[in-house]
Amino acid sequence: MDLDAFALNLRAIRARTGPSRKVLAVVKADAYGHGAVPVARRLEKEGVDHLGVALVEEGMELRRAGVGKPILLLGAFTPAQIPLIVEGSLTPTVYSIATLTTILEARRRLSRTIPFHLKIDTGMGRLGILPHDLGAALDRIAALSEPALEGVLTTLAESDQPESPRTAEQLRIFKSALEEIRRRGLKPLHLHIANSGGIVNHPPTWLDMVRPGILLYGLGPADGPAPTDLTPALSLRARVLQLKSMPKESPIGYGGAFITSRESRIAIIAAGYGDGVNRLLHDSGHALIRGRRVPFAGRISMDLSVVDVTDVPAAAEGDEVTIIGAQGDHSITAWEVARECRTIPYEVLCAIGPRVPRIYIGEGAPRPIRSRFE
Question: Can you tell me the distance from the alpha carbon of 119 to that of 136, in angstroms, rounded to the nearest whole number?
Answer without folding.
Answer: 14
